[in-house]
Design goal:
Blueprint: E1 5-9, E2 16-23, H1 30-35, H2 42-48, E3 57-61, E4 67-76, E5 81-82, H3 84-98, E6 104-107, E7 115-116, H4 122-134, E8 154-158, H5 162-187, H6 195-206, E9 212-216, H7 218-224, H8 227-233, E10 241-248, E11 258-268, H9 288-302, E12 308-318, E13 330-332, E14 338-340, H10 348-363, E15 367-372, H11 377-382, E16 387-391, H12 394-407, E17 411-413, H13 418-422, E18 431-432, H14 442-451, E19 458-463, E20 469-470, E21 480-481, H15 486-496
Parallel strand pairs: 1-8, 2-4, 2-6, 5-7, 6-8, 11-12, 11-15, 14-18, 15-19, 16-17
Antiparallel strand pairs: 3-4, 9-10, 10-12, 13-14, 16-19, 20-21
Helix pairs in contact: 3-4, 4-5, 5-9, 8-10, 9-15, 10-14, 12-15
Length: about 500
């Protein structure tokens, strides 16, 4: 479910609950103060001991005519300057406070009630955070779950500039649609999402929006020499796909595109190097990199971003069988480089190797960013708060980091060095798909492996293994799939390429 009925008005709805802002000095936001006849709100603020601390909430049954509940939301100090992400968090806070109280709310907090930096979109960002937080994956629930049960169906943000805000919010709503698509496909189980079905979803979602969709099947990939990708896929009954998504939105249609490549292992058993059963059910999320590319391309197309973009989804299923790839096998990648397989559970870098080479040789991109749930090592290093960022270009890394700080999708740059590169040399092939025993630094050695399939292109690798899902209730998303990367990379494109 997701609350998509978000509107903007100059006046509050007739019968509903209202959301009002309270500053840390106890004063009310402007529209709330106008509603505070005979102190019916301010007296309750004092009675409840609500201090207006930032993002704190409280509610009470209203004694104001035609208002069911009054929901108090802390705005902190009046002098506070909100970042873009904090404005989204404020909207998410409003959703959480109101979700179970009433079918409709009027939000008497707008951009005019808070100071913010980095953006002119105050109310719009609050509404975006509201929508993002309302999403949850309840498709397969046949019984009511009180944890997800909500009454809320619509929200009206009250603002003097309602016409302008409504028009500008369309941009953010389109971004949300991309994030929702990513969350949906990554949340689905592996018996629903597999290479063929995900390729069809990409086609049905994006082709009507003007995205050129090309789907390469096994025979076509074999002709291209994609032995690394096909080696991973050979143990499964589900044939692989390489989905190429092309958006030509720039004024100069021949301008070099920005390329995004996503790891799409729709289920990762580990292959012959099979994983332990504890947590294996979560390996349906191992296609989150491709899911992010899919959602990003939808947001780009819906907003008709004036930039040329190519998205590549490398889709396989990694299964053990009599035909599966074995440890000790040697495969030849599309680049011509040979790889000794040390573990069939280090499969993501193998499919990315061919996908990265493909996008360079066929589309000559200006820059390449790949996303992958690549290593458990990055989770050990950075936990579940940061994605690992690796790059051969300081400027590109800085651009991604800047968008990270704005959107709240955090990245932390990690090292690439000659020492770690040497650790993946093989005695009998060009390289191994794991580092030599004792090297450790698994996130970095995996990135070094990918770097060997980059020519002279600006490149960044984002390891999202620790951030693509959450077991905690976060500000902008509930437990489950986060959709990490869509907002980050959409912002990156807008700031650096969409001129």
């Amino acid at each position: 479910m997701v609350v998509k009925d978000v509107k903007f008005s100059a006046t509050k709805s007739e019968v509903c609950s209202v959301v009002v802002g309270v500053y840390s000095d106890g004063s009310l936001s402007k529209k709330a103060a106008a509603l505070d006849v005979d102190g019916k709100i301010s007296k309750n603020v004092k009675k409840l001991g609500f201090c207006g601390s930032l993002f704190k909430t409280c509610s009470f049954v209203s004694c104001i005519d035609k208002i069911n509940h009054v929901i108090l939301v802390g705005l902190g100090e009046k002098s506070k300057e909100y970042s873009e992400f904090e404005l989204e968090k404020l909207g998410a806070t409003i959703y959480c406070a109101a979700a179970k109280l009433d079918e409709e709310i009027s939000v008497l907090i707008s951009g005019s009630d808070v100071s913010f930096k980095c953006s002119k979109y105050g109310t719009e960002l609050m509404a975006l955070g509201f929508m993002l937080k309302s999403w949850n994956f309840d498709k397969y629930k046949t019984k009511c779950d009180c944890e997800y049960k909500t009454k809320l169906k619509r929200a009206v943000f009250v603002t003097e500039e309602c016409t302008t805000v409504e028009s500008e919010f369309a941009w953010f709503k389109n971004l949300a649609e991309g994030i929702f698509l990513t969350r949906e496909v990554v949340s689905e189980p592996a018996n629903v999402i597999y290479p063929e079905s995900l390729a069809k979803i990409a086609e049905s979602e994006l082709k009507p929006l003007g995205v050129e969709v090309q789907i390469l099947e096994k025979d076509e990939m074999a002709k291209l020499g994609m032995g690394a990708l096909l080696g991973v896929a050979q143990g499964s009954e589900k044939d692989p796909r390489l989905v190429v998504l092309k958006w030509n939105g720039a004024a100069d249609k021949n301008a070099k595109p920005v390329a995004f490549v996503g790891k799409g292992v729709t289920f990762d058993s580990g292959g012959i190097s099979i994983k332990p059963d504890d947590g294996m059910h979560e390996m349906r999320y191992d296609m989150a990199g491709s899911g992010t590319v899919l959602g990003l391309m939808k947001a780009v197309a819906l907003n008709k971003l004036p930039v040329n973009v190519v998205g590549v989804m490398a889709l396989v299923e990694n299964m053990p069988s009599g035909s599966a790839q074995r440890p000790g096998d040697i495969v030849k990648s599309m680049s011509g480089q040979t790889i000794e397989i040390m573990s069939t559970d280090a499969e993501g870098r193998l499919i990315l190797a061919d996908a990265l080479w493909y996008v360079q040789s066929k589309h000559d991109p200006e820059a390449i960013i790949d996303l992958a749930t690549l290593t458990g090592a990055i989770v050990v290093a950075l936990g579940h708060e940061f994605a690992g960022l690796f790059s051969n270009c300081d400027k590109l890394a800085d651009q991604i980091k800047a968008s990270s700080e704005i959107t709240g999708e955090k990245v932390w740059r990690m090292p690439l060095t000659e020492h770690f590169d040497k650790s993946i040399n093989s005695d009998i092939a060009d390289m191994i798909n794991l580092s030599k025993p004792g090297t450790r630094a698994g996130g970095t050695t995996a990135a070094q492996f990918l770097k060997r399939f980059i020519n002279d292109k600006r490149w960044a690798h984002i390891d999202i293994a620790g951030v693509e899902t959450t077991k905690d209730d976060l500000f902008i998303c509930s437990k489950g799939v986060t959709g990490f990367g869509v907002h980050l990379l959409f912002d990156f494109l807008c700031r650096n390429y969409a001129k």
